[in-house]
Amino acid sequence: MILTTLILCFTAKGQGIIAGRVLDEHKESLAGAHIFLKETSFGTIANGDGKFRLKDIPAGTYTLGVSFIGYETLSQSVDVVDKSTLSLDLVMELGDIQLADLVVSASTEQPVNTLSPLDIKLRPTNTSQDILRMVPGLFIAQHAGGGKAEQIFLRGFDIDHGTDLNLEVDGLPVNMVSHAHGQGYSDLHFVIPEMINYVNFDKGPYYANKGDFATAGFVDFQTKNVMEENFIKLEGAQFGTFRTVAGVNLFSPKNAKTQGYIGTEFFRSDGFVESSQNFNRFNITSKISTRLKNEDNLSFGASFFTSRWDASGQIPTRAVESGIITRFGSIDNTEGGETSRANLFLKHVHSFSDGAYLTQQAYAVRYDFSLYSNFTFYLNDPLNGDQISQKESRMIYGYKANYLSEGTFLRKDLTTELGAGFRLDDVNDVSLSNTVKREFREDIQRGDIHEANVNLYVNETLRLSEKWSVNGALRFDYFNFRYRDHLENTNKSAGNAIVSPKLNVNYQLNTNTQFYVRTGFGFHSNDARVVTQQSGPEILPRAYGVDLGTNTKITDRLFLHAALWVLDLDQEFVYVGDEGIVEPSGKTRRTGVDFSLRYEVLPWLFLDGDLNITNPKSKEEPEGQDYIPLAPMISSIGGLSFKMKNGINGTLRYRYIGDRAANEDKSVIAKGYFLADAVVNYTQQKFEVGLSAENIFDVVWNEAQFDTESRLIDEPESTSEIHFTPGTPLFLKLKVSFFF
């Protein structure tokens, strides 16, 4: 399929085409909306710009429908004429939660893998990191005072802070390569939740436009182009927590060719621990987009974020059980840090007369990071303690281009996507040092990193019939790593390339059921400080994945998704920034089952549930010694959401993760938990008031957990056991918003 891009002479314009865009009432694109012809099996899903295209439709009169959860289903009569294109702008209005018209087709897009603004609004959300928890099977854990990026768990991976999950915001990379704290470190706190338009996600290494870190999956955040209304929101909660956020449109009217806004957020909290976190965060963001001639679009974005915090750190179980501290106490309360990030990007979308379009984006990121941690207390230095400092300052420069066209090959519909890009990370003075109460003692590592990635991909989807479609892709990545060691006064470099093929097949059994097979190779890169001292496949360990799945509508109101999957890694080989060392853990295999359910109980009541079961094991260790520490084996999220016509809306939700091995022989257990959260809002045209409650049953639970060897100041010997950060107790938050 990939080679067909070289034979474009076979392409021809489709017959009987319906094309256009799906928009909300503010003319904002509705990515993920479902477009279908009710009398046929023709259907598709709007792309990231809200655009869609239905091809090769026999001449006649049809009923065109558009549905999207949280919006009134749109229905209108259309006349299709041979050898002509009907262009439409379809505007949807907010409405009830509906599943009746959800489309199941042989397309490669998944019908429920877009989180809409309604999803985000009806969940307890303090930061954009919390939105990650909406991805089925994904859990996060905070273990350093609120300002540090959360630990992530997905598909049997302890992803740490992003080693096996590709994260982007408006096309900007979130994962930090060769980071001071850990490979792939992903901090989403620079995104204001209210500015998010939608979130796309999927699992596995099956997507050609996703490269480094896209082994367990990817999550893409897209921010708004315009505010629905100007607004200001005030939130107050327990533990000295206060948040204010505002968004104001810069242009009027809302349907003008040029749109844009500015948004800002301030957050502060003492936290629920005994030693105040003194956590504060400030964000400001702006985005401007304008429609040019020929339906071209030019957008510009800029944002800045800064944060500071103190942390109680991870505490040993024995210190709590012996009464030395409470579960909300600390051994070293001088942990914490500060970070900042500034982003600039320019994006241009050019539309061609034949329906193809070219997207180009250039970006620059300035990033600073400083973190103080103490995981082992007095294990290595009985006199001064083991506190460490990790710091870095970096610039990221990048460019990406994507060309998408539709035609025919051998009289079959063919969608061709070509992509290219590069990313350059210039990291200065990345260091790991010994400190005492944040005072510098000595360096363990210090140097400069230059890391470049150039990538190309071709992605083709051939629609063999109304029932069958085949997607084939090939991605090429080249990496160059350079490290200048300030302590040893050396310069080392290394480079390597990797090719990642993908092949996906989709089959539509009938108008209600789809089956698919996905296969693909992926990879995650390793830290430049490791790479420049290593060679061979350990530079870019490969991942191999297979998914067998189905999407089916049992009834008009009940949708089910199920998948069996396998994912192998050649090497779980990552830089451990806490110690300045490398921990290769060899080849691994994860097998699992995913289930998702969406049920429209009533026009105003919606139920969802996700269950994920995984068996993560090392392939190179004997049975009983082959557990992958902290890898989740069973997890589930779900809840009831409601949206009534009188303005009352909200949700009651649960999240569950089972007990899991904390070490290789499962002799130490990281305990699971079951939590429930709730949100209720009263929304009117000019204001909204709401109350959210996290952990409504006030369950005692541990958020982050590690099997760590440590020694307290008065202990003659060290002990290896669970060290943890306590989970949030019952947490109530009141909010009020004004729209103008």
How would you explain this protein's 3D organization?
The chain folds into two domains: 2-113, Carboxypeptidase-like, regulatory domain (Immunoglobulin-like); 117-739, Maltoporin, Chain A. 2% of the residues lie in helices and 57% in strands. The strands form nine sheets. It has a 22-stranded antiparallel beta barrel. Strands 8-16-17-12-13 form a five-stranded mixed β-sheet. Mean pLDDT is 89; it is low at 1-14. It is mostly beta strands and 740 residues long. The protein starts with 16 loop residues before the first strand and ends with a strand. Strand 29 and strand 30 form a beta hairpin. The chain contains four helices and 46 strands. The longest helix is centred in the N-terminal third of the chain and has 5 residues, at 117-121.
- Regarding CATH, which class of the largest domain? Mainly Beta
Which CATH-level-2 architecture of the largest domain? Answer: Beta Barrel
Total DSSP helices: 4
CATH domain topology of the largest domain: Maltoporin, Chain A
- How many domains make up the coordinates? 2
Strand content: over 45%
Q: What would you call the shape?
A: globular
CATH-defined superfamily of the largest domain: TonB-dependent receptor, beta-barrel domain
Average pLDDT for all residues: 89
**Helix content bin:** under 10%
The count of strands amounts to: 46
Helix and strand content put the structural class at: mainly beta
Low-confidence stretches: 1-14
- End-to-end C-alpha gap: 52 Å
What is the makeup of the main sheet? Answer: 22 strands, antiparallel, barrel
Please give the radius of gyration in angstroms: 26 Å
